[in-house]
Specification:
- The chain is an all-alpha fold.
- About 65% of the residues lie in helices and about 0% in strands.
- It has 17 helices and two strands.
- It has a two-stranded antiparallel ribbon with strand order 1-2.
- Strand 1 (about 395-400) and strand 2 (about 405) form a beta hairpin.
Length: about 475
Amino acid sequence: MHVRLSEKEQLLPFCESHDVNTPPQTPPQPAMKKSDSRDVRWVEGLRGISALFIVTSHTFAKLNTNLESPAPNDHTAPGLLQLPVVRLIIAGRASLSFFFLLTGFVNSLSFLREVRSRNHDVALSRLAKSSFRRIGRLVLPAAAATAVSWALCQLGAYQLAKRGDVAWFRDISPSMSETLPWAVYDLFKQIWATWAITANEYDKVQWNLFFLLKASMFVYVILLATTFVTTGARKLILFLYYLYSWTAGDALIGMNIGAGILLAELLTDMSASASPSSIFSSRPYTRILPPLIIFIGCIIAGFPEKNPNWVTWSAYLNRLGSDIFKAKTEFSRNWGSVGSSLILLGCLYSPHAKAGLSHPYLVWMGKVSFSIFLIHGFLIKSFLCWMLYWNAEAPSMVDDEGSQYTGWLPHVRGPKLAFSLLAFFAVLYPLAWGWYFYVESACGKAVQWVEEWMLDEDFKTPRPLVPLLNGQSRV
């Protein structure tokens, strides 16, 4: 329920002078009642956990490829990390879905609140700036990560990874260039290829950054197109867009950003209402229904990438997916998107989940989540592989024809493997904080400099917006 304002209060946002380059210290008061629903620190905690699970999927699941299935085989009981809910730790596709889902959710929150408050000018101004900045804030840090990976490659830091027995580590480890000029050429070629053909030989985990940028632009276009429609009409448009993405098999972008903006609408409804009418608002439902939705979402999001018919729960989801998803699509991406959306929906209405995700450590992990994503690839190929193979000797093998050849280096196991993984994570997070503090900060300043250089002169100097009554236009 919107709070009714007096005529003077309605005109107040248009009477103040605002600097378009920097956000005002005292923003226009929205027409919505401020509530605890406006505190979204818990989203950072959710993002931090997602980044962590992407890294664990690239380490635990690649060191033991059986984890990509729901059980070791169709006659054996699942291991601990293969159990429902627990397997989210190694479900990289579900964790990636969260990044796209939160792109739609977070990027639309401020816009929706301003539109609901009838501050369309402010909403459109912020939307334009956000869409301009988004490109640089993705491209520049990614290019910096590629440059670091390129330098490590040319120094021979990936040689152990290329000789190791983990197939995925070998696949993501590039070879050294033949000469320095070719090395420089390869660097710029791969930076360009990240956005041109979604392939970067120096950092193959960056393949999804193009789609993340594309998803951001889709969010901005959707918000721009629905700026002046009613809230109900916007929700209908978003629902139809989500339905279209579902039937088209667009699980990575369409389903995630559609659900993300829809869930942002729900959060805006909660912020605008002093007494929410949702069934989630009563205390019994708050304690029971949201946790149940989160639990179901965790099961669904953990749908295995391989051999889903080996256990009952994933076999059922596989049969159901055959009926409700587009044929010849990867059901692990579809179910990952649906499960992630359910988890976020449950968190919206669960004060306990929000409180847990708002823990300072999780919020800190969320702040460095993009840094974690960018640096974990070259750190796996260098530091982790050095820990796994530093004292290994390649065995002598004999093929079917009786010829001898040198096999792959075996990685350490047991306590040594556990110690290597702990050391890897102990190095990863401090390094990510340094990357966030120095590299991403420098990239942000560069984007800001470009913005100030390119921005129209009329928008660099703040101008007072004077309200004129009796149907006259503002100048």
